[in-house]
Amino acid sequence: MRNLSMLTDLYEFSMANGFQRNLPHTRGIFDIFYRDVPDHGSFVIAAGLAQVVQVLRDFHFDAADVAYLRSLNLYDDAFLTMLADFQLDCTISAVPEGLPVFPREPLVTIEGPLAQAQLLETVLLNILNHQSLIATKARRITFAAQGRPIMEFGARRAQGPDSALYGTRAAVIGGAVSTSNVLAAQQFGIPAAGTMAHSWIEAFPSELAAFQAWAQQYPDNSALLVDTYDVLRSGVPNAITVFKALKAAGHQPVGIRIDSGDIAYLSKQARKQLDAAGLPEVKITASNALDETVIPALLAEGAPLDNFGIGEKMITSASAPVLSGVYKLAATRTNGQLKPKIKVSASVEKTTLPGIKQIYRLYRPGTHEAFADVMALADETLQTPLAVVDSNPLQTHKYLALTAFTAVPLQQSINLAQAPLEDVFAIQKFAQTKLAELPAETKRLVNPASYPVYVTQQLDALQHQLIDAFKQQVN
């Protein structure tokens, strides 16, 4: 993986240069969180931490980087020397990949010298926003498929090679089971899958000859694309001829794929033809711009589809292509003294939560049923009854007391030198376990219920104290 330390915005260097001169002994604590859920959902699947760890392990500036920055005639020699000799002095805590997280909850918290921590903003947001977005879209699509396997087919429509590679990884975290992307399959241990393109069929004298050549080449991996000419009058009948010959030779046909046309109607008729030919085990795959809105419609019509190949709608999260995660200063530390910080906005929902925090998931005692999250200051101990405030600033009924619960902390300290880069299917399994703990109504694709996220009374009081202090300054 190439060094991404220069993948940042110019103002990050400009601020870091100023921090180095004016606040050289001050450390900053920054939270990464988001406010709005894509596709009007209720949560986001956290993804990208493994790449964040890789980037931070290798964060440095080589001679060419420093020479370029010097050529801008913007920065002090002392700052450029610091970059040339850069040694990362930041700590990180984060929620694990695959965890469902809710608005305003920190996915990652960074602490380090202001000049260093500021330089991390853009690259970390780039990684976490993208991969969490795709994992979330994949979760929606796999949920819509109702247990049928989802194959990731989107490399050619992704916005560049990195988006294709890491988007595939994120899609698997969200629930996909395989990919057509060979580089992603190789790098992340994902099963590679695929059939053929229409060009294979077109290159042969006839569709039957193309299918026969494929079956001869791949007798135990014969999945045939049947919509090049006519699905029901040509594609499926020719596939049946080839599949019968394969079975007679002791091989097991895999299936057919339909990539165009009225997929609900065509799959029903294809199923009838396959079953009548004594091939009930042959599977039917659908592809062609599918997503979590099209798949339920197909299944509602009774389309006998066994799995789905999903391309552009998943790898780009086409219906909601942005997760607007932000990187906000929550506190500074100078000579060991912690000072909470806040951004106050005319838009009340953009006012930030100050201080170093921990997120807790609350479970009903003795169960794995999550019913709420609570954000607390890191040095707080949660005891019952717990006085809390709804974290949604637009909520009407804000104050209540929680009594019976088991609180599980969600953020974990990450050791950059030893942090394992987990197997992507282990992360997927973790995600599925944590999704199963959430109330069913929060997982709906349309009009999901809001999951309660609270802040402790102490954290709420700190926020209002800082807001009041700001008002006194401006009045």
How would you portray this structure in words?
Helix 2 runs antiparallel to helix 6 and helix 11 packs parallel to helix 12. The protein has helices at residues 10-22, 49-57, 63-71, 77-84, 114-119, 121-144, 161-173, 182-188, 198-203, 207-217, 231-248, 263-276, 294-300, 312-315, 424-436, 457-474, and strands at residues 26-33, 44-45, 91-94, 100-101, 108-113, 150-152, 178-179, 223-225, 255-258, 283-286, 307-310, 326-334, 337-340, 357-363, 370-377, 386-390, 399-402, 406-409, 412-414, 453-456. The protein folds into two domains: 10-134 and 321-474, nicotinate phosphoribosyltransferase (Alpha-Beta Barrel), CATH 3.20.140; 195-303, Alpha-Beta Barrel (TIM Barrel). The chain contains 16 helices and 20 strands. By secondary structure, the protein is of the alpha/beta class. Keywords: Glycosyltransferase, Ligase, Phosphoprotein, Pyridine nucleotide biosynthesis, Transferase. Pfam families: NAPRTase, NAPRTase_C, NAPRTase_N. Residues 357-462 form the Nicotinate phosphoribosyltransferase C-terminal domain.
